[in-house]
């Protein structure tokens, strides 16, 4: 049997949700409101939250007066997100490398470093092509990614987090192309080991990757949409429009 890709395996475990349970929902809401101020979407726009997790960003987008579909590869995350569904908010399991047939959107959001999970840039190109197909002409794309330049320069090699009675032992290293995070812990006498591998895509690489499909309009460096400074910014946030 072929081994699952790391994200398909790790993201669909209960342990992933335990480790990342303390995400800041208020910060996420402020971020979405700041983005909407720049995007200037018309009321009741059709939006896609691509790799939506448990749906915290999709919920805020929906509460701002838009029709939203949230998709993620993790069945566990989607099962949790479905508790928020209403007539204008829905969730489904979907692989971001494939276009959703019969659907087009005014804006696609890919947030919280939900990109670059793959081993090759060809896979990234598949994601970009899928997004291009799903966007209406002139539609907008938002990518919120880690600032790889700062992460590489300030990597925390080892740390331990104790959550729900479990001691998560985390180690990180830069491989030259990826940030590799190893997560080891023991629960109920069983030893577990999971891996995260995220490509260190910097701004110049994103510019090249997006160029065939999108025109970059804005680049920001924080959830407050501050100026992007490669050595200092916490995030790399790109807003682009679909080429006609």
Polypeptide structure, described:
By secondary structure, the protein is α/β, with parallel strands linked by helices. It has 2 domains: 6-147 and 202-242, Vaccinia Virus protein VP39 (Rossmann fold), CATH 3.40.50; 151-197, no CATH class. It is 28% helix and 34% strand. It has 8 helices and 11 strands. The chain has helices at 6-10, 14-19, 25-39, 56-63, 75-81, 121-134, 148-153, 203-210, and strands spanning 46-50, 67-72, 89-93, 105-110, 135-146, 158-163, 166-174, 178-187, 190-199, 214-220, 235-242. The strands form 2 sheets. A 7-stranded mixed beta sheet has the order 3-2-1-4-5-11-10, with helices on both faces. Helix 3 (25-39) packs across helix 4 (56-63). The longest helix has 15 residues, at 25-39. The protein is globular and about 55 Å long. The termini are far apart.
């Amino acid at each position: 049997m072929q081994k699952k890709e790391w994200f398909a395996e790790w993201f669909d475990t209960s342990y992933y949700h335990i480790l990342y349970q303390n995400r800041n929902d208020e910060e996420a809401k402020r971020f979405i409101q700041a983005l909407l101020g720049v995007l200037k979407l018309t009321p009741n726009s059709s939006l896609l939250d691509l790799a939506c997790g448990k749906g915290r960003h999709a919920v805020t987008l929906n509460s701002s007066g838009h029709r939203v579909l949230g998709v993620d590869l993790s069945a566990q995350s989607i099962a949790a997100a479905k508790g928020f569904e209403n007539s204008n908010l829905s969730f489904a399991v979907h692989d971001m490398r494939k276009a959703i047939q019969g659907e087009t959107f005014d804006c696609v959001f890919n947030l919280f470093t939900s990109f670059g999970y793959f081993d090759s840039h060809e896979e990234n190109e598949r994601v970009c092509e899928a997004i291009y197909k799903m966007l209406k002409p002139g539609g907008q794309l938002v990518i919120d990614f880690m600032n790889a330049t700062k992460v590489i320069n300030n990597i925390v090699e080892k740390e331990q987090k104790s959550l729900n009675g479990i001691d998560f032992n985390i180690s990180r290293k830069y491989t030259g192309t990826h940030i590799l995070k190893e997560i080891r812990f023991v629960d109920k006498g069983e030893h577990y080991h999971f891996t995260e591998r995220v490509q260190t895509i910097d701004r110049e690489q994103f510019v090249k990757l997006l160029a065939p499909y999108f025109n970059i309009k804005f680049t920001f460096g924080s959830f407050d949409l501050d100026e992007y400074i490669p050595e200092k910014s916490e995030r790399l946030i790109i807003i682009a429009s679909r080429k006609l």
